[in-house]
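User: Can you predict the 3D structure for this chain?
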Amino acid sequence: MIEIHPLGMIGEVEPGSDLVAILSGALLAAGLSVNGANVLVVTQKIVSKAEDRYVALDSVNPSEEALRLAKVTGKDPRLVELVLAESNAVVRAAPNVLITRHRCGYVMANAGIDRSNTGSGGRVLLLPQNADVSAERLRQGLGLRFRSPPAVVISDSFGRPWRYGVVNVALGASGLPALIDKRGEPDRDGRPLEVTQIAFADMIASAAGLAMGEGDEGIPAALVRGAVWPAGSLPASALLRPLSEDLFQ
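Assistant: Here is the predicted structure, written as structure tokens:
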């Protein structure tokens, strides 16, 4: 049986905060023991805050391209400049919409740059430099505090093509296979599966999102128990489809 245990009462995370200590304390305060068969899902936001990925908008000087796209989208040209700096390509620009291919490969709105729950002061929050590295760092740190550390997934909310609403997906992962390839395995009728690959880390992130919420809940992490996965570890970057397989360019 899958269990999802939200970790509240973590408080505001500041630049330089020790996330390993914070998360370990939250697990102990909740009376939760952990082991390698568990997954600790942590929101991107507190990872970015601890890594001081803040940028003050007043410090940004928009380029001509940012000014042009700001007119198209109706967005703050300083924000657009940051989006461009974090991206490799603009996928779509329209009123109220700026979708780019982030430098880490994610295709997302505004390069994942966020203003919500960042306090006052005219600053925004960027994604971690490398979420897989951040996940591995957290797991290694937890390994110093727990005999058998949980797998770690760093999650963020994404919109999806042709569907309304957002769901949580995995930006970073450590200690589990983010993608499970079932191709070649038989179905119940003995026919080999031809295309089935399971976005396992995304499924874990989405499940945890039910407990963490998307607004003012103040629950930035959750422990998932009862999930089963094959041996091995594969980072979340394995979930990114290469440009050579992009059928919608």
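The first helix runs from residue 19 to 29. Residues 91 and 175 are 32 Å apart (CA to CA).
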